[in-house]
Amino acid sequence: MVWALAIHGGAGAIVEALSDDHRNAVEQTLPRIADVGATMLRGGGSAIDVAEQLAVELEECELFNAGRGAVLSVRGTHELEASIMDGDSGRAGACCGLKTVRNPIRLARQVLERTDHVFVAAPGAEDLAKEWQLPCVPNDWFTTDRRRRQLDEFLAAEQDDRMHHATVGAVVCDAEGRVAAATSTGGMTGKLPGRIGDAPMIGAGTWADTRVAVSGTGLGERFIRAGTARMVSARVELLGEPLPVAAAAVLDSMPPESGGLIAVDTGGVVALPFTSQGMYRAWATGAGIVGHAIGPTIGGP
Amino acid sequence: MVWALAIHGGAGAIVEALSDDHRNAVEQTLPRIADVGATMLRGGGSAIDVAEQLAVELEECELFNAGRGAVLSVRGTHELEASIMDGDSGRAGACCGLKTVRNPIRLARQVLERTDHVFVAAPGAEDLAKEWQLPCVPNDWFTTDRRRRQLDEFLAAEQDDRMHHATVGAVVCDAEGRVAAATSTGGMTGKLPGRIGDAPMIGAGTWADTRVAVSGTGLGERFIRAGTARMVSARVELLGEPLPVAAAAVLDSMPPESGGLIAVDTGGVVALPFTSQGMYRAWATGAGIVGHAIGPTIGGP
Q1: How many Å apart are CA A69 and CA A185, to the nearest integer?
Q2: Distance spanning both ends of chain B, measured CA to CA
Q3: Testing the interface with B: which of A85, A154, A238 to mutate, by most B Cβ within 10 A?
């Protein structure tokens, strides 16, 4: 079997909004993180372990809207959410409303492993994180100057909707043909306290089964109302469509510029479609296909 | 166009567990509530208004696990959740973790109507309820002696898993061929604080679009991991299956005795499949088909 992975750091009208410094930072970071996953997979790592670790790496990077560097709610605080699904077992874990859990995806994984539940909200979810001794930080540890500025612009009604809905995510097919998906986010700038987006919703922003794994990013409410991630698999299962066809068809059924998704199937095929102007993304496979991009590309998966 | 509606009050291993008094109360209540919806639909009520009102009636009835009569979490408190989706507009509203909102489905409807969000968790969701002046009650207003006893049995490890995962729900096709779905629940007896089930998850326990409306009930985590409600519509859309075939196929793809669902399509066809021992349910259509049942039936929809 050929392993494969893809990661994303959000989709939106991002291309012209980028400073050269920011673009350079993103372009150095995406392949570096993808390589962490590739190394794990070459060493026999499982899809679920690699998906979790890739999401942790993206959460730890302040360039992206998850973990440190997450966007701020209308109250100037962070509420983080994440989900993970293991296609092989069909098990899933998700959490939302987190204020102090440093790596939301790690909590989602532990919900999957340690409970009979799938989805747990704070404060109950934070209690579990403490019980399980996951690293916690003060809420303002997640804050960066850039996100503070974006909230100020939002509150002054000057925000331009660029990348304020983004998430991070990873999809992985391991050398045994098992797939997994992970998604993590700070939500959207200026969101109402308690707003849950698509990232922690199994079937909306995240899905994995015995066929495909999917992680979405963009205007979360649209992903919820379309059941986006679940539908990619449904088309593969019910219509027999190749993954890239199914993934593009689901995005095309949504309103224009809703965002994008990354997907992989159990044969190691990767699809990275988006209907927004760009999507931060990188990919790697055991067949030697490696790359990263922000705007539209010709020739990438 | 022929209007149609169905309601459910939960699915599980319920038949032999019922006292005669309880069975009689359920058998009187289900058709009475269905008739509330039928009267609204004859008067030109919209699918979304009728679905909301039917869920309110079920929440207000202490026989069922939603609103008053909801089950208790492991801490002896209630955390209520609900969702509603309007097939015609594709809009949805959902809320979870509610402790004082008397009718969770009314808050879900207001999230749909008044915000750009779909899903809001408490305490933010409770703040919205207060801002919008929805009726609130003390948390123990929801408690009944029966639910307290069930929690005591659960904590003593004597619980038998009967009807402790139930929800209530409604699906409606109005005289203009629009469909809507609503689901509300107290969750599962002894749940961890913060546990979110399938009821408030669009695509898992609730779905409506321009083809069908679906409300599920049973072992919520299984509905989340199957994307149950979304998949019923996917099969109708992608395979052209009649609704009863699609609904049964999705349930059959899940583990045995996962629960049941109620569904209606825009032509007024009703499907009420379940793989548990029974499902509290009632149905009515403008073509004069009316009924209710708890266990398996021959001849109902």
Answers
A1: 10
A2: 18
A3: A238
SS3 B134: coil
Domains of chain B: 4-293 (3.60.20.30)
Residue of B nearest to A86 (CA): B225
DSSP alpha helix (H) spans, B72-117: 104-114
Query: DSSP strand E in chain A: where?
Result: 4-12, 80-86, 91-98, 119-121, 168-173, 179-185, 195-196, 206-208, 212-218, 259-265, 270-271, 278-285, 290-293
- Count the alpha carbons within 13 Å of B86 in the hemisphere toward its beta carbon: 19
Instruction: Please name the helix (run of DSSP H) or strand (run of DSSP E) that holds residue B37, with its range, or none.
Output: helix B20-42
Q: Residue A119 to residues B149, B183, B224: CA-CA distances in angstroms? A: 26, 17, 9
**CB-based contacts of A125: which residues, under 8 Å, 6+ apart?**
A95, A96, A97, A98, A101, A107, A111, B194
Q: Pick B118's closest partner by Cβ from A121, A207, A221.
A: A221
- A91-131 residue pLDDT tens: 999 999 999 999 999 999 999 999 999 999 999 999 999 99
A36: DSSP letter: H
**What phi and psi, each to the nearest 5 degrees, are found at residue B299?**
105, -20
Whole-model pTM? 0.96
Residue of A29, A100, A143, A167 marked active site: A167
Per-residue pLDDT tens over the stretch A27-79: 999 999 999 999 999 999 999 999 999 999 999 999 999 999 999 998 999 99
Residues in chain A: 301
